[in-house]
Amino acid sequence: MDHHPLKPSSPVKLQWFVCALASFLGFLFFSYALLSANIRNSATLPSFQHLVSNHAAISPVAEVEYYYSSVVTNKEIRALAPVYNAAVVPLSSSVEGECDVFDGEWVYDEEAYPLYAARQCAFLSGQVNCRRNGRPDSDYQHWRWKPKGCELPRYGGTEMLERWRGKRVVIVGDSLNRNMWESLACILYSSMQHKSRAYVNAKSHEYKMFRAMDYDCTVEFYWSPFLVKLEQRKDHSKVLNLDELPDTAQRWIGADVMVFNSGHWWTHRGKMRAWDWYERRGRAAEMGEYEAFNRAFRTWARWVGQSVDTAHTRVFFRSISPEHKLENWCYNQTTPFTNETYKQYFPRTMISVVERNIQKMRNKVKYLNITHLSEYRKDAHTSVYTTRQGNLLTLDQQRQPNLYADCSHWCLPGLPDTWNVLLFASLMGTPSNVS
């Protein structure tokens, strides 16, 4: 008669049964633990659809970092567009114990500002010399940026020249960075005691230079609105090469300070568009402007990593300079916004591309985040007090602001002076918090 497997009279079979039971219980425990971990992970890393539908509680910058490991696709950008339009978390330059100089408010200060008078700066272009062009008000010149929790020192041209003795500053980008170059050159030039010791080359559209000879200080501007190479072929077609920087890039190398920007030219449509097609890896490429901008930005970022000695050169990327159009029209405005109810029409997705890529550069580039503070300044644009194709607007053209008002560029003296003060503050060290 065979023994029953559960009877103690069969020690071998009993031992086998105990081992089998232990293995089965262990399998159940492991399965339960794995299922719990998956549930927790699914809550931490939601699906793409869940993320879009619940964007209010999630950082858009973090979303891009997770979903766009290499490139931004047009399909995903369209899906995420509502996310970025709802909120963009800006990169902050502050760390614990320091003040974020890009977060604050505008304070009217007639004593400290402007930092210079337009008449002191003979090379100031007609495009931005609003008072000379007939602007009747001047309050836009007297606003001072005050960060929350600290005081921003009032840096003047004399201190900048002393700190930049023997230094070379290079500013690269579009006409908004040219706006910044004019501002910086005027700040420095107006403070020089012997102005005959300054050399200024401001005639060229693509290259400008200011040099203070007694200080051996040079400030240059290079025209490069895309940061990558735009070339005209023999058939007169214009090709934007997303893999290559312009030929002038070799001349940027060796500067002590570099300031780059890009963005506005990527949004141009129709006759305003500067290129006929994109080129990548030697072949024509079809893609949307956001993906093209992302690829171009990554090309520039690689160039910085490979060609710029960041131990010697301080590299900055100036954020998007906002426009004021439609409901926020700049025409006939004399005071800044005092609240944040304004609408910003520049593509937030493009801003996120910049911020995501800068985050990946591991502190090789400092983000000069002037977008938000500039959004308040609907009053500071050149509007109808400017030039068109080098000629001052006629009275008849000034009476047609819907056609001729420039709500992109800024009057000088004016807002870009604050950009340069913030640039200098970032070089000198962020002020400590004030309790």
Automatic annotation (TrEMBL):
Domain named Trichome birefringence-like N-terminal is located at 98-151
Q: Where does it sit, as one GO cellular component term?
A: Golgi membrane
> Chief localization class?
Golgi
The regions listed as transmembrane in this protein's record are 14-35
Q: Which family does it belong to?
A: Belongs to the PC-esterase family. TBL subfamily.
| Keywords carried by this UniProt record | Golgi apparatus, Membrane, Signal-anchor, Transferase, Transmembrane, Transmembrane helix
Q: What is a GO molecular function of this protein?
A: xylan O-acetyltransferase activity
Q: What is the gene called?
A: LOC109722111
- UniProt topology in membrane: Single-pass type II membrane protein
Top-level lineage group: Eukaryota
What is the recorded name of this protein?
Answer: Protein trichome birefringence-like 40
What taxonomic lineage is listed for the species of origin?
Eukaryota, Viridiplantae, Streptophyta, Embryophyta, Tracheophyta
User: Pfam families from the xrefs?
Assistant: PC-Esterase, PMR5N
Question: Which locations, inside or outside the cell, does it occupy?
Answer: Golgi apparatus membrane
Trichome birefringence-like C-terminal domain residues are: 152-425
